[in-house]
């Protein structure tokens, strides 16, 4: 499709005629005692009705503008590469990368939180001194399934490349996420929405699973940046089995300094109060990963909506920085009796629904408990 740019902005609805404008504005102004006094004074000076109308209209517009001071302004732009950039007030917030031929998945990177702080690991997209360079398939914010339809979109070619040599046998069941199109891209003031259609294909190109991905972006009153991720998986071509493997789900690889193992004060906490390694495998409505980034206390919370598949999800969250909501590995991650395997009939759908909050401070300072309560009441 052609490149696009969409941008929100203040919208002012003006009456069709000057007489209507004067009447409407003056009625609004007279509802305020202080404005009424000003108008009576002006009337004593025999100002014309037209001048009064202009004054009232100006005051009304000024009030609207003052109400918008400090509000974020989103825009979405599809770049020449095909990647989709989301901006806040003209500055890059994140980029949905669809063009990276080195990997088999789409992902968000960079992901920039409050105060312009990068919240996720840069490797393998970029070498940054001090970052831990393990698990190259952990690309910032991404989604993958270790086994669906017999194919793997969690790992990738780099995973099985050691000293420049590729283990070709491991690539035999390597699937790929193919970004097919942008269904919707909208930006209006302090919100934006991106909806995409994605196909999972095997090495021969056959589609074995399709996905509808919806991402809603906004900025909270406290300045936290929010991504609502709704991922719907649709069975294809006679049905798709998703096997309950450990490495599956919506995933974040946090900035290295936040991770517990970095030894810089980073911590994991979930809604039940389980901390660090004790949070792994637990079902919970939310988990928060927080610590120092560029010398400032920052955090990333991931919330699970009550309408999401197998809520509350088990969390594959590791002290080295992996942060994954995995509702499939009931046995391997949650330690339950069920395997978690599920077969989607052709056209059958399951939906995973999460909110990612990029915030200042720790989970308590950001009041993630209250944030989940608010999120839980949104439409499922």
Give a description of the structure.
The chain has 380 residues and is an alpha+beta fold. It has two domains: 51 residues, no CATH class; 303 residues, Beta-galactosidase, Chain A, domain 5 (Distorted Sandwich). Helices cover 15% and strands 35% of the residues. It is built from five helices and 21 strands. The strands form four sheets. A nine-stranded antiparallel β-sheet has the order 1-2-3-4-5-6-14-19-18, with no helix packed on it. The protein has an eight-stranded antiparallel β-sheet with strand order 9-10-11-12-21-17-16-15, covered by helices on one side. A two-stranded antiparallel sheet has the order 7-8. Strand 9 and strand 10 form a beta hairpin. Helix 1 packs across helix 3. The longest helix has 20 residues. It is globular, with a radius of gyration of 25 Å. 41% of the residues are buried. About 11% of the residues have low confidence.
Please outline the major beta sheet: 9 strands, antiparallel
What amount of the residues lies in strands? 35-45%
Number of domains: 2
Uncertain residue segments: 9-43, 62-69
What is the first-to-last residue Cα distance? 30 Å
């Amino acid at each position: 499709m052609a490149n696009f740019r969409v941008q929100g902005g203040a919208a002012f609805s003006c009456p069709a005629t000057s007489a209507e404008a004067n009447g409407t504005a003056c009625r609004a102004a007279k509802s305020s005692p202080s404005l009424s006094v000003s108008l009576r004074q002006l009337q004593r000076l025999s100002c014309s009705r037209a001048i009064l109308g202009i004054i009232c209209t100006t005051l009304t517009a000024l009030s609207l503008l003052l109400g918008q001071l400090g509000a974020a302004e989103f825009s979405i732009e599809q770049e020449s590469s095909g990647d989709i950039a989301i901006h806040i007030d003209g500055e890059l917030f994140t980029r949905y990368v669809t063009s990276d031929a080195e990997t088999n998945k789409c992902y968000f990177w960079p992901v920039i939180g409050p105060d312009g702080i990068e919240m996720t690991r840069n490797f393998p997209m970029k070498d940054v001194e001090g970052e831990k360079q393990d698990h190259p398939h952990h690309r910032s914010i991404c989604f993958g399934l270790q086994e669906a339809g017999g194919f793997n979109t969690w790992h990738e070619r780099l995973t099985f490349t050691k000293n420049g040599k590729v283990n070709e046998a491991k690539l035999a069941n390597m699937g790929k996420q193919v970004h097919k199109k942008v269904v919707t891209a909208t930006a209006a003031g302090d919100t934006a929405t991106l909806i995409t259609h994605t196909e999972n294909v095997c090495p021969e190109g056959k589609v074995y699973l399709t996905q509808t991905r919806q991402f809603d972006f906004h900025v909270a009153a406290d300045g936290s940046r929010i991504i609502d991720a709704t991922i719907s998986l649709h069975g294809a071509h006679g049905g798709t089995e998703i096997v309950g493997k450990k490495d599956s789900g919506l995933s974040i690889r946090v900035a290295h300094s936040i991770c517990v193992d970095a030894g810089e004060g980073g911590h994991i906490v979930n809604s039940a109060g389980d901390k660090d390694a004790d949070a792994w495998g637990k079902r919970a409505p939310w988990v928060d990963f927080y610590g120092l980034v560029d010398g400032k206390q920052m955090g990333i919370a991931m919330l699970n909506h009550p309408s999401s598949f197998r809520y509350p999800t088990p969390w594959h969250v590791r002290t080295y920085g992996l942060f994954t909501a995995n509702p499939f590995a009931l046995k391997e991650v949650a330690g339950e009796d069920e395997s978690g395997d599920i077969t989607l009939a052709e056209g059958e759908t399951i939906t995973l629904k999460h909110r990612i909050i990029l915030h200042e401070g720790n989970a308590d300072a950001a009041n993630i408990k209250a944030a989940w309560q608010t999120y839980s009441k949104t439409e499922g």
